[in-house]
């Protein structure tokens, strides 16, 4: 894929504080970019890595978007011509198993383990979009895979509803499912617009929304069932 120029970077990658909470990329910078780096650092110096991890997590919690701003500052300082939306989407497919624990369910019943598999499968397929979007035939096949993966994930979420105790827990998971469906429909609309206008960045962002919503489903199920 052709590397975007600086004007493309400034127009599509910078996210103002007014819509920081609405965009998916800032929420994914920590788990997709920084957490794997911290894991590598931990192999060299456990104490330093844990201290840095704690500081970053606390700062991000108190100032949402800090990690995104930090990475963007590095990008600007290095004068790199990159689209961070595209980068985060690509990297999502390369995360090692150890970096996925935050979104992994530990219950041993088959529906929970199946949800682990289906959520990872969907995110991996979505991460292939930057490499395949320019090849129309390949991309159309990928879209079919994404649609199938979305359906399979929703089927498992429906099945897990039987394991969730209490009305409040069931409602929380149901709400996450509705949000996921909403962004799935937006993804479909974005694809139609892409084939008319040929702007891939909108597809990258829409795919990141789906990844974020998938993560939210996993976190909600985890909090209500474990």
From TrEMBL:
Residues 25-81 form the Programmed cell death protein 10 dimerisation domain. It is a peripheral membrane protein. It is found in: Cell membrane; Cytoplasm. The keyword Electron transport does not apply. It comes from the Eukaryota. Its main location: membrane. GO terms for biological process: regulation of Golgi organization. Belongs to the PDCD10 family. This is Programmed cell death protein 10. It comes from Musca domestica.
């Amino acid at each position: 894929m052709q590397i975007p120029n600086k004007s493309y970077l400034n127009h599509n990658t910078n996210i103002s504080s007014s819509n920081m909470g609405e965009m998916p990329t800032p929420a994914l910078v920590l788990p997709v970019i920084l957490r794997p780096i911290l894991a590598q650092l931990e192999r060299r110096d456990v104490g330093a890595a844990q201290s840095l991890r704690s500081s970053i997590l606390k700062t991000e919690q108190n100032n949402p978007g800090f990690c995104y701003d930090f990475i963007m500052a590095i990008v600007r300082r290095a004068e790199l011509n990159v689209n961070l939306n595209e980068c985060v989407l690509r990297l999502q497919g390369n995360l090692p198993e150890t970096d996925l624990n935050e979104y992994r369910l530990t219950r041993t019943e088959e529906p929970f383990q199946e949800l682990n598999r289906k959520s990872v499968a969907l995110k991996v397929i979505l991460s292939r979009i930057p490499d395949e979007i320019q090849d129309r035939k390949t991309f159309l096949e990928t879209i079919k895979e994404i649609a199938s993966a979305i359906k399979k994930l929703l089927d498992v979420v429906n099945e897990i509803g039987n394991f969730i105790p209490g009305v409040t827990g069931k409602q929380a998971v149901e709400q996450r499912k509705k949000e996921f469906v909403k962004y799935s429909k937006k993804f479909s609309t974005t694809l139609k617009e892409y084939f008319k206008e040929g702007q891939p960045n909108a597809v990258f962002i829409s795919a990141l929304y789906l990844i974020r919503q998938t993560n939210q489903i996993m976190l909600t199920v985890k909090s209500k069932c474990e």
